[in-house]
Design a protein that fits this description.
single chain; about 375 residues; alpha/beta; 4-stranded parallel β-sheet; binds threonylcarbamoyladenylate; binds magnesium ion
Length: about 375
């Protein structure tokens, strides 16, 4: 792999034909979607797919999503299209939901990490759709970042993370949704494997049944690694009312602190002198759109630790909470939720934050009612 930091300017642009030609020739193209940028390869070219894994630094057993230009291509890639898949595709495609279905013979095992299922989605971005239409086939693409780090929501982030390892970057501007697609397993009773841009509530309305969020699926989902979507800074999660106090405590210890200030405490920003403070947008959609940009901002400002709280897990809050928990990951033991009793980390001490009304991990992830 190249260790060059950047990508040559002539390899960034809006030349869809060049991008499609690069895919046909077995090259790697980073492209915008409404969620995050993807690192694409011809899904039927095993060498190209293997290069995606190598560039990302991702274990070959972690499957990729195959991107299609339209729902009419779905039957070409799966063994069968269940009714539920038709319903979700009709309602949300093009859009930020990925369907896990039984793999069709066309899908190489290199794409699925050896699984008998395949993840498919039709992205809702004009540049992505132009690329997929010009290319004609399926494009296997993970998010265009190194394994475990923050997903790119702008073309410049792709260059920062992957540098010269990408053959061409289609620059379609900033991503509108900002968190990755919701992954829904439809091989049996519907279950969310990763919360994302389509809310659980909307999925349930479309399917007419409850759709649990599954904690530990039988499949390997990198987003389910304890530490993922992680900035360099350590992320510490506390209750909203403790964000400012905890940030002050860490700053007093000489740490360089980043603060994601919950909207209801925006007035308290003055207390965070010398810290990098970002006021969290009130709207879930705005917060989701900018979450990864915020995490990158803290790294750019060389924060050692970021203090944040998780939003309530409804609407896009579910996906935001999921990404923040994974950003906090195994590097801290924090799992604090509003009103939730959990162990949080303060410097080198471990203390209890807590109260009633906890949503526990198993409950939000729905293991009790999932199969
Ligand atoms: O929004 C998105 O989904 C973005 C854009 C580029 O489309 N893509 C993305 O890809 O987030 P990636 O590889 O970073 O995450 C895809 C997730 C992974 O966690 C992977 O394990 C899971 O999809 N996945 C892929 N195939 C699967 C399968 N057959 N069963 C279960 N999970 C699967
Ligand atoms: Mg990813």
């Amino acid at each position: 792999m190249s260790d060059q930091p950047g990508i040559a300017p002539e390899r960034v642009g809006l030349d869809v034909e060049r991008a499609a030609g690069t895919l046909r020739a077995g090259g790697l193209v980073a492209f915008p979607t409404e969620t995050v940028y993807g690192l694409g390869a011809d899904a039927e070219n095993v060498d190209a797919v293997e290069r995606v894994f190598a560039v990302k630094g991702r274990p070959s057993t972690h499957p990729l999503i195959v991107h299609l230009s339209g729902a009419r291509q779905l039957p070409d890639w799966v063994a069968e299209v269940p009714d539920a898949a038709r319903r979700v595709a009709d309602r949300f495609w093009p859009g930020p939901v990925t369907l896990v279905l039984r793999r069709g013979r066309r899908v190489p095992r290199a794409v699925t990490g050896g699984l008998e299922t395949v993840a498919l989605r039709v992205p809702d971005h004009p540049v992505a759709r132009a690329l997929l239409t010009a290319f004609g086939g399926g494009v296997a693409a993970p998010s265009a970042n190194r394994f475990g780090s923050v997903s790119p929501t702008a073309a410049a982030h792709v260059g920062d993370g992957l540098g010269a390892d990408v053959d061409y970057v289609l620059d379609g501007g900033p991503c509108a949704v900002g968190v990755e697609s919701t992954i829904v397993d439809l091989t049996g009773a519907p279950a969310i494997l990763r919360p994302g841009g389509v809310t659980r509530e909307d999925l349930e309305r479309a399917l007419g049944c409850s759709v649990p969020v599954r904690a530990r699926s039988a499949v390997r989902v990198p987003g389910q690694h304890p530490s993922h979507y992680a900035p360099r800074a350590r992320v510490v999660l506390v209750e909203p009312g403790q964000v400012i106090g905890h940030a002050e405590y860490l700053a007093a210890q000489g740490r360089r602190v980043g603060v994601l200030l919950p909207p209801e405490f925006a007035d308290g920003a003055g207390a965070c002198a010398g810290q990098r403070v970002i006021a969290v947008p009130d709207s879930g959609a705005q917060y989701a759109r900018r979450l990864f940009e915020f995490l990158r901002d803290f790294d750019r400002h060389e924060c050692e630790v970021v203090v944040a709280s998780v939003p309530t897990p409804d609407g896009l809050g579910l996906a935001i909470a999921d990404r923040l928990r994974r950003a906090a990951g195994s590097r801290s033991q924090t799992a604090a939720t509003p009103g939730c009793s959990a162990v949080a980390e303060r410097g080198d001490e471990v203390f209890e934050v807590g109260g009633a009304g906890c949503f526990d991990q198993d409950e939000i992830v729905g293991t009790k009612d999932s199969t």
